[in-house]
Amino acid sequence: MTQTADQDRPATEPPAFPMPRACPFSPPARYAELRADEPVSRAVLKVNGKPTWLVSTYEGMKQVLGDSRVSANLKLPGYPLQVPVPEELLQTVPLTFLSMDQPEHTVQRRLLAPEFSLRRMRALRPRIQQIVDARIDAMLAEGGPVDLVAALALPVPSLVICELLGVPYADHPRFEHWAGQIMNQDISDAERGLAHYELDQYVDQLVTAKETEPGDDMISRLIAANRAEPTVEHSDIVSMARLMLVTGHETTANMIALGTLALLEYPEQLAAVQADPELLPKAVEELLRFFSISDAGTARVALEDIEVDGVVIKAGEGILPLNNSANHDSSVFPDPDTLDIRRAEARSHLAFGYGIHQCIGQNLARIELEIVYGTLFRRIPGLKPAVPMSELRFKDDAIVYGMYELPVTW
């Protein structure tokens, strides 16, 4: 028997989303209850009070993200957007390919995909290694304590994405500021709108310059490929470049800090990685699964009535498939709340999403994390937190979970 949005609702008020974590290393406790008792459930968004559906199981998440009857278009009325953007501003913001449906999404993804192939990303390993070594050299020269977020977690992915795109690294503080403003839930609409505008203007000027003076970089190659076989407009290349700038450092930076802290807090896991560097790829997959840092990137809206786990979600209703819940589903990951770097099924995680919108930069993220974790603990084997866990600040209500600072010493 199925139910709809108007049938068989629980008598209690739906919870507010996002939900609080009781422990920085654990998903919200409510997720386990939902998986067991109500895998498709109602919630209201804290940011605007809008209703949405939560899908909390692994199979449920895969079903939603693989269904062509759901849309990633954040401009649709029911979309569960978690940033307080006024409707009039939202409608003026160009869609990135992350928020596009077929066929537009396929066109842009096909243009970008060669830039993030495994072969091309593996070729970057020596340069990424140089960047990581240089940042650790600077940490060692400064001496502890240092903030790992400012000294390593943010600069490494920022330097890498700047080089990939052909962005002068001297400009990285500007786009880090814009990215932070865009994702900040605690600033005014005017401030967020200004950040969108300034970032768009910067990237537009950058793309325009490379149309006349190309270099050996991703933006220049996208321009050349599009000239050879025109499929997108100038504005589309601007949108793709802006997306890579914002997402190319924010998520990886948060995983660098969180993963470092987790390995420090699980010394037996760290010791295993230090003793056998061949475990690093598995450790990266397990850390990605363990933290699953965003439940926002997989937001969707139903285009038609669909049934998930016996519940009918009506056309026009928003859906949040929770990857931090799906990746702790014990039917797929036994003892899911335990960090186990030898976990055989870790790579089955959904931290990069699922389906046609699966993260295009996942090969780069994996390589960056492997190099950072491996190099950091090899070169500074005595690394340790400089403050108690209770003093650390985590991004509990941010769109992407992470840490504001991580003071470390050795």
Strands, count = 11
Helices and strands, in order, run as: EHEEHEHHHHEHHHHHHHHEEEEHHEE
Poorly predicted runs: 1-10
Helix/strand-derived category reads alpha+beta
**CATH superfamily membership, which one?**
Cytochrome P450
β-strand percent reads 5-15%
Cα separation of the termini? 59 Å
Instruction: Characterize the largest beta sheet: strand count, sense, and whether it forms a barrel.
Output: 6 strands, mixed
Keywords: Heme, Iron, Metal-binding, Monooxygenase, Oxidoreductase
Pfam families: p450
Family: Belongs to the cytochrome P450 family.
Protein name: Cytochrome P450
Question: Would you kindly provide a written description of the structure presented here, covering whatever features stand out?
Answer:
- Helix 8 runs antiparallel to helix 12 (234-265) and helix 12 crosses helix 14 (280-291).
- The chain is globular.
- Helix content is 47%, strand content 9%.
- A 6-stranded mixed beta sheet has the order 1-2-3-9-6-4. A 3-stranded antiparallel beta sheet has the order 5-11-10. A two-stranded antiparallel sheet has the order 7-8.
- With 410 residues, the protein is of the alpha+beta class.
- The chain has 16 helices and 11 strands.
- Residues 1-10 have low confidence and may be disordered.
- The chain has one domain (16-409): Cytochrome P450 (Cytochrome p450, Orthogonal Bundle), CATH 1.10.630.
